[in-house]
Amino acid sequence: MSEKLANPAPLGLLGFGMTTILLNLHNAGFYGFDSMIVAMGIAYGGLAQIIAGVAEFRKGNTFGTAAFSSYGLFWLSLVILKLFPSLGWFETPSAEAMAAYFFMWGLFTFIMFFGTLKTNRVLQFVFLSLAVLFWLLTAKELSGLAELGTILGYEGIICGGSAMYLGLAEIINEANGETVFPVFPVES
């Protein structure tokens, strides 16, 4: 008897995409940083992506395991970096420390981008735009320029939107048994 497993990628992509959009609406200046962002960072950006990573492990997908688990843990670590100092548990990280944090995530993401080169153009865009987002966050921390926050906010909305598109495309295309929303596969 064979067991068909569901595709966990849409859960991870949607958890990442929606949480990224909501945080970057804040970065773009539409509203303040509040418990909505923290809750999304813990539940959907964090836990949902970790669940997707574990499911990718079950399917034998090393790339999916590393990507979803890592970015799920990124969201949890970002919440900790924001929440713990406000509770008086640790000091607020310096701008230089946050720049190093974002730079390392940008480097990780850029290297992971090379793992997308044989998949599809939308996934490539997600990873490349995410690397750019992390490096814009790095530059904002080092420069202190508020205008950079607005620019990176819009770039983050685009990045998150591309992840949502891919997650929804995978769901809708599978449900219909045909390509309804194209993802532009790389031809070998």
Notes on the protein architecture:
- With 188 residues, this protein is mainly α.
- It has a single domain (9-176), classed as Serine Threonine Protein Phosphatase 5, Tetratricopeptide repeat, CATH 1.25.40.
- The chain has six helices and no strands.
- It has helices spanning 9-27, 35-59, 62-86, 95-113, 121-143, 146-176.
- The mean pLDDT is 97.
Notable traits:
188 residues, mainly alpha, Serine Threonine Protein Phosphatase 5, Tetratricopeptide repeat, 76% helix, globular
Outline the fold blueprint.
Blueprint: H1 9-27, H2 35-59, H3 62-86, H4 95-113, H5 121-143, H6 146-176
Helix pairs in contact: 1-2, 1-3, 1-6, 2-3, 4-5, 5-6
Number of domains: 1
Q: Give the topology string: H per helix, E per strand.
A: HHHHHH
Mean pLDDT: 97
Poorly predicted ranges: none
> Into which percent range does the helicity of residues fall?
over 70%
Write down the Rg.
17 Å
CATH topology: Serine Threonine Protein Phosphatase 5, Tetratricopeptide repeat
**Distinct helical segment count:** 6
Beta strands, count = 0
Principal-axes geometry comes out as: globular
Classify the secondary structure makeup into a structural class. Answer: mainly alpha
Q: Characterize the biggest β-sheet.
A: none
CATH hierarchy, class? Mainly Alpha
In CATH, the architecture is Alpha Horseshoe
Distance between the termini: 33 Å
Beta-strand residue percentage: under 5%
